[in-house]
Amino acid sequence: MTEIGTLLDIIRLVVGIAILSYASYTDIKTRRASNLLWVIMGSIGGILLVVQFFTIGFEDIRLLLSIPLMIGFFYVMFQFRLIFGGADAKALMALSILAPLKPSIEGFPVYGALPFFTWTIFANSIILFLIIPLSLLVFNIVKKDIEFPYCILGYKTSIEKAREKFVWPLEKLVDGKRKFMYMPKDFDIDVGLAEFEKNYIKTIWVTPKIPFMIPLLAGFICSFILGDILFHVMNSFI
């Protein structure tokens, strides 16, 4: 990789970190991320690809087919509700343009990363997101609130605090009995909490609305610096 190629990849890394960091901040504060962010990211990505084409070119230009393929993949996942939200899907689509190919920055060997680099970013983000249930389990063990499957999906809190935080209930009342809720996103939290209050129940299991944008940011950084996380994990056992 030439100096120009390295510079382009550094720009991609900096742009990705800057935009995903801001999106993570707004997602935490308001549960919103402006569409303008993804337009900017995709536009910069497109410009960088044009610059690369007219300067150093591509080792295999056919790999650019990953852009429409990955965009289509994330769109389908969003339509079938297999991905976390609209902003997350748009972020991944924009990343498909910003960083479609495996980068090469001196000092950062991206071991195990696929040529379709956006897939590596997505896979790393999912792996990092899975750390959350483990963290919740440890938290609940410390609190001595061990009740499966609740303790790996959320935590117990008061009805009053649940109203003040970004959470989904993991329980609902059916004929006066507490039942585990499989699809908390489809549940009206205000109605659910009111039902608990009517039955003089003061605490409830909830799951935090942790934006996927945060593990996506971490996955993006890890992909550029380390490569494929799963590759490193598997390699450590071989």
Description:
- The chain is mainly alpha-helical.
- It folds into two domains: 3-130 and 211-236, Four Helix Bundle (Hemerythrin (Met), subunit A); 132-208, no CATH class.
- The chain is 60% helix and 9% strand.
- The chain is built from eleven helices and five strands; from the N terminus they run H-H-H-H-H-H-H-E-H-E-E-E-H-E-H-H.
- A three-stranded antiparallel beta sheet has the order 1-5-2. The protein has a two-stranded antiparallel ribbon with strand order 3-4.
- Strand 3 and strand 4 form a beta hairpin.
- The longest helix has 28 residues, at 3-30.
- The two termini are 30 Å apart.
- 32% of the residues are buried.
Strand content: 5-15%
- Biggest sheet character: 3 strands, antiparallel
For the record, the count of structural domains works out to 2
Ranges with pLDDT <50 over ≥5 residues? Answer: none
What is the succession of H and E elements?
Answer: HHHHHHHEHEEEHEHH
Question: Which fold does the CATH topology of the largest domain refer to?
Answer: Four Helix Bundle (Hemerythrin (Met), subunit A)
CATH architecture of the largest domain: Up-down Bundle
- The end-to-end distance, rounded to whole angstroms, is 30 Å
Strand order of the largest sheet: 1-5-2
Shape: elongated
Chain-averaged pLDDT:
87
The number of strands is 5
As a whole number of angstroms, the C-alpha radius of gyration is 21 Å
CATH C-level of the largest domain: Mainly Alpha
Helix content, binned percent: 55-70%
What structural class do the secondary elements suggest? mainly alpha
